[in-house]
Specification:
Blueprint: E1 27-36, E2 40-42, E3 55-63, E4 75-85, E5 95-107, E6 110-122, H1 124-132, H2 139-142, E7 148-153, E8 161-167, E9 176-184
């Protein structure tokens, strides 16, 4: 039987003259998902089945207020959920797929990329709709189930910012709110 040795170093910031600081967010705001546009399916291997490498693609309009007034819906969200693992065969029930989620928020003052691994549930009727090009899906059917996503700023006022996005309300409530918190990247 072998011996396991664990060794480590720890530095006390007080003794080295360093101090721990809590970074305040650079920007923080909420957006509200208002309208889901048609959902499409990219069957990358043309086999007629939702499998690894295939993707669900959708877009939605967002507003800065939960009232979702048409004039306030100035933000566009584009989402792609690429399947990375298919579920084991289930008869009659919905299937849960593991996907690589990527979303883009197009705001008036720049873009933000949302990323994360998440799961996606698809029942037989929804899949038939995707195959025929007439998918009738709700926003809650396509939004990621994950509680938190990674956010990377993409230009203009968001250049050099990173952070997180999470649901401002439970994803089963309508309208669904998204809380974005951004911090300045520190290079050191």
């Amino acid at each position: 039987m072998g011996t396991l040795v664990v060794q480590g170093c720890q530095s006390d910031p007080k003794s080295s003259g360093q101090s721990l600081t809590v970074t305040k967010p650079e920007k923080s705001f909420e957006l509200w998902f208002c309208k889901l546009n048609p959902v499409t399916w990219r069957d990358n291997d043309a086999d007629g089945a939702l499998g690894v490498g295939d993707a669900i693609v959708y877009s939605a309009s967002l507003a800065s207020k939960p009232s979702c007034e048409t004039a306030d819906q100035t933000t566009v969200f584009s989402g792609v959920e690429e399947v990375v693992q298919v579920p084991s065969k289930q008869v009659g029930g919905p299937n849960r797929y593991l996907t690589n989620f990527q979303g883009t928020l197009k705001l008036n003052d720049g873009t933000l990329q949302l990323r994360g691994l998440q799961s996606f549930v698809l029942n037989a009727e929804q899949f038939k709709g995707l195959k025929s090009g007439r998918a009738v899906m709700r926003l809650l059917d396509v939004l990621p189930e994950s509680a938190t996503f990674t956010v990377v700023g993409g230009g203009q006022q968001f250049e050099g910012l990173v952070g997180t996005a999470s649901y401002a309300v439970k994803p089963d409530q309508t309208p669904v709110g998204l809380r974005v918190t951004l911090y300045r990247q520190v290079n050191g």
